[in-house]
Automatic annotation (TrEMBL):
This is PaaI family thioesterase. CDD domains: PaaI_thioesterase (cd03443). Pfam families: 4HBT. It comes from the Bacteria. Gene3D superfamilies: Hotdog Thioesterase. GO terms for molecular function: acyl-CoA hydrolase activity. It comes from Sphingomonas tagetis. Keywords: Hydrolase. InterPro entries: HotDog_dom_sf (IPR029069), PAAI_dom (IPR003736), Thioestr_dom (IPR006683). Residues 59-134 form the Thioesterase domain.
Amino acid sequence: MTPPESGPDSVGAAAHYRALESLYAAAPINRFFDSRLEIPASGQARIHFTIDERHFHAGGAAHGTSYFKMLDDAAFYACNSLVTDRFLLTTAFNLLFTRPLGPGPVIAEGRWVSGQRRVFVAEARLIDETGEEAARGTGTFMKSRIPLAGLPGYRAG
């Protein structure tokens, strides 16, 4: 399925993407993660982050909370790139772990799959520094009553 805003992204869409990137950077939870959101186009999002020992469970690899957070965020922002007026909320997320993550850079890639009005579906995957997939997930997101423009950090332009 093609995102509703397919084709060349408009100046307004680009401003919305930058405002979402700013919103991500301003979220208090992201003080715990060395991460950066990038929205290259409608229905797509990438989170660049680094795993280190602070994220490990007792077995010496990244704890599942890191996997979930980055997959959920990548899928969420892929969907919210299509919505300019409201903040979305995660209503469900399924996660498949395929290999452990050690320390190093990781990219979470999110891609919108379906939905254009109130409910959206996206998938995301984690890619480690060797190019191998470490996890994948699918999320469902719903429009909230929270206006994006009123959120601290959402700054267009």
